Amino acid sequence: MPLNIMQKNNITFTNILIAITVAMYVVQINMQYGTVYMGLNLYFVEQNFWWQPLTTMFAHGGIGHLGMNMFVLYQFGNPIEKYRGVKTLVILYLVGGLLTSLLSYAFMASVGFQHNLVGASGAISVLLGYFALKDASQRKGIITWVLIISVAPLLIGLPIAWYAHFIGLALGFIIGKFIR
């Protein structure tokens, strides 16, 4: 479908990603051990669950987690897509998200974490890093927000993959240096 037709119908790649993520969450919660199969964990290496770096971006820890991530994806994905194009969004979200997953797994393995990583936060953080790079007026606010959403939940005992946020933010800056 040509981009101009997609925009006239308010169908954007961002909104398609949101719909796919919601659908995958429904699959995840209705599949026995769906969170383990779709999350990123030791099975990635030990059982050759090669799909996990991708599916972890579509799996979530609950409806609130899903809702917050999709809200932020909508807020940042659509403007990037509108002003920079679908190709830029695909590179940032899917390629950046995969790289974030792999680097997060490497970090988990290096420090001995053996938990299950789920959520689109790492991929969304790539978008935030790119946005902060390209819009200097919002840079401090975005970095502060990522720090808050990464540290505050830890302080109240919530399990959060803070490192995926930081890795994604840094990758957004780095990838942004190479694409328009």
Main beta sheet, described?
none
Helix content: over 70%
Tell me the number of strands. 0
How much β-strand is present in the residues?
A: under 5%
Going by CATH, the homologous superfamily would be: Rhomboid-like
Compressed to H and E, one letter per element, the order equals HHHHHHHHHH
Give the C-alpha Rg. 16 Å
Given the structure, what is the number of helices? Answer: 10
Q: What is the 3D form? A: globular
Sheet/helix structural class:
mainly alpha
- Could you name the CATH class? Mainly Alpha
In short:
The protein is 76% helix and 0% strand. With 180 residues, it is mainly alpha-helical.
Describe the protein.
The structure is a single chain. With 180 residues, the protein is mainly α. It has a single domain, classed as Rhomboid-like (Rhomboid-like fold). The chain contains ten helices and no strands. Helix 6 runs parallel beside helix 8 and helix 7 packs across helix 8. The mean pLDDT is 94.
Structure characteristics:
76% helix; Rhomboid-like fold; 180 residues; mainly alpha
Question: Topology, please?
Answer:
Elements: H1 3-8, H2 13-30, H3 34-38, H4 43-46, H5 52-55, H6 63-84, H7 86-111, H8 121-134, H9 136-155, H10 162-178
